[in-house]
Amino acid sequence: MSNRTFTMIKPDAVENGHIGAILEKINSAGFKIIAMKYTQLSLEKAEKFYETHSDRPFFNELVTFMSRGPIIAAILEKDNAVEDFRELIGSTNPSEAKEGTIRNLFATSMGENAVHGSDSDENAKIEESFHFTSEEILS
Ligand code: IDP
Ligand code: MG
């Protein structure tokens, strides 16, 4: 079990002014931010980040959305980080996300669902190094 996960505050949540509220939820749930940047994905970088979804029917919609405006990318530290963060963000579809979860509070649709959270320790590592060098991680 790893103690790190990777997150992005997606363009919809940035556009809607929810950066502060989402970071507050993350901190209140006991996650420590050990790396963070305000950045924007190019279409090419979004395609690379989501390449495992390239066969899915929503792939083009997803990468267009994820590259349309700035995001926050961050690495979070906590015991059982991957699983606990998935619990904090709620289901992919916000209409199914439990009350009080980040997606329940801030997502607008299945695609524009406010935040990303890694789905495994293995993917958390890959996603961390996609966005951050070791010098940018201050644990
Ligand atoms: P997750 O973010 O909860 O892990 P995934 O199935 O890994 O969900 O899908 C990655 C992202 O692709 C979702 O967060 C969402 O932004 C987008 N997505 C997933 N399913 C759909 C869909 O049916 N329509 C549009 N976008 C979708
Ligand atoms: Mg996923």
Provide an overview of this structure.
The structure is a single chain. By secondary structure, the protein is of the alpha+beta class. The protein has a single domain, classed as Nucleoside diphosphate kinase-like domain (Alpha-Beta Plaits, 2-Layer Sandwich). Helix content is about 40%, strand content about 15%. It has seven helices and four strands; from the N terminus they run E-H-H-E-H-H-E-H-H-E-H. It has helices at about 10-15, 20-30, 45-50, 60-65, 80-90, 100-105, 120-130; strands spanning about 5-10, 30-40, 70-75, 115. It has a four-stranded antiparallel β-sheet. Helix 3 crosses helix 4 (about 60-65). It is globular, with a radius of gyration of 14 Å. The model has no long low-confidence stretch (mean pLDDT about 95). Inosine-5'-diphosphate (IDP) binds next to helix 4.
Distance between the termini: 17 Å
Name of the top-level CATH class: Alpha Beta
Q: Please tally the helical runs, counting DSSP H or I stretches of 4 or more residues.
A: 7
Query: What Rg is obtained from the alpha carbons, in whole angstroms?
Result: 14 Å
One letter per element, helices H and strands E, the order comes to: EHHEHHEHHEH
Average pLDDT figure = 97
Shape: globular
Major pleated sheet: 4 strands, antiparallel
CATH superfamily: Nucleoside diphosphate kinase-like domain
Question: DSSP strand (E) fraction?
Answer: 15-25%
Summing up helix and strand content along with how strands pair, one would put the structural category as: alpha+beta
Portion in helices: 25-40%
